Amino acid sequence: MKNCLKNILIAGGLGMLCALPLVAQDINADDLLFAMREMTVSQGERDVMGTIRKGRNKVPFSLSARGETVVFQYKHNNAWQRFDVRIKERNAELVLVNNGKAQVMSPSNYGKTLADTDVCYEDLSLRFLYWKGAKLIEDSANARIKGRDCYIVEVRNPSPGVGQFAWVRMWVDKDNGTTWQIDGYGADGKLKKRFSITSVQRLSDGTWFFKQMKLEVRDPKNPNRTIALNYLEMDDLPEKKK
Questions:
Q1: How many angstroms separate the first and last alpha carbons of the chain?
Q2: In whole numbers, what is the pLDDT of the chain averaged over residues?
Q3: What separation in angstroms does the CA of 98 have from each of 75, 88, 101, 228?
Q4: Torsion of Cα atoms, 161 then 216 then 76 then 43, to 10°
Q5: 143-154: per-residue pLDDT in tens?
Q6: 135-136 and 92-98: which strand pairing?
Q7: Could you tell me if 64 and 83 are in contact, meaning their C-beta atoms sit under 8 angstroms apart?
Q8: Best label site of 24, 32, 59, 163, fewest CB within 10 Å?
């Protein structure tokens, strides 16, 4: 299980990677979350580079797998900052690393944003993939994303008040397992953030990887209104090492 979460993290930070086969019969929400954790369409041990963009602000970042740890680095004020995600059997531990010294992150900092963007530690850590009690939502009117039929999976935060979301909804492609959209809701029941794929890139081995992902921050008073836009944009990926 540790390698599974490492794979999905190194595959894109937010788990939105394509080409995950699903078994149509007897599917349930726990199966889908398990499949997301088990996603094997990963980029292995190679480093992944990209940029978080908010307006004119561009923040270079990298992700790299080091054993049972995924290392995130981002550049702010001309200096590289680092935090790690240490993969446990049943969860993922967030750790700040400064001058070679590691300190486990307080849950109160999960929602802290990075380098003047709206992307926070919790957004990149995929913490919600380990929440228990997921369920499928029957909503045929809203089950299509980008013309694709999707399962809608909802999972609630088992520790209310910890982190920015009370529950999360994910739209998972019924055909290939792509997670096209993730919506995070606050304790007030209102949509706080929406993550969605806007473009993808195909690798030479036939697998798919997101090229650009959009993060919308919604107005606390009117969740239908977007008040901030951020983009995660990935560099072209190098060939896998054989």
A1: 24
A2: 81
A3: 13, 22, 5, 30
A4: 90
A5: 999 889 999 999
A6: unpaired
A7: no
A8: 24
Contacts of 27 (CB under 8 A, 6+ apart): 136, 151
Residues 6+ apart with CB under 8 A from 141: none
The identity of residue 205, as a single letter, is: D
Given pLDDT bands bounded at 50, 70 and 90, which one contains residue 81?
very high
Q: b/e for 108-137, b at 16 or more Cβ within 10 A? A: eebeeebbebbbbbbbbbbbbbbbeebebe
**Coil, helix or strand for 5?**
helix
User: What is the model's pLDDT at position 17?
Assistant: 45
By CB neighbour count within 10 A (0-12 exposed, 13-18 middle, 19+ buried), where does 90 fall?
A: exposed
168 touches 128 (CB < 8 A): yes
Backbone angles phi, psi at 228, to 5 degrees: -155, 140
Quote the pTM value: 0.83
Amino acid at 124: L
Q: Give the Cα separation of 80 and 85 in Å (integer).
A: 17
Q: What are phi and psi of 129, to 5 degrees?
A: -65, -15
Where do runs of H (alpha helix) occur along 40-182? 121-125
State pLDDT tens for residues 161-197. Answer: 899 999 999 998 888 777 889 999 999 999 999 999 8
State the Rg of the chain over Cα.
17
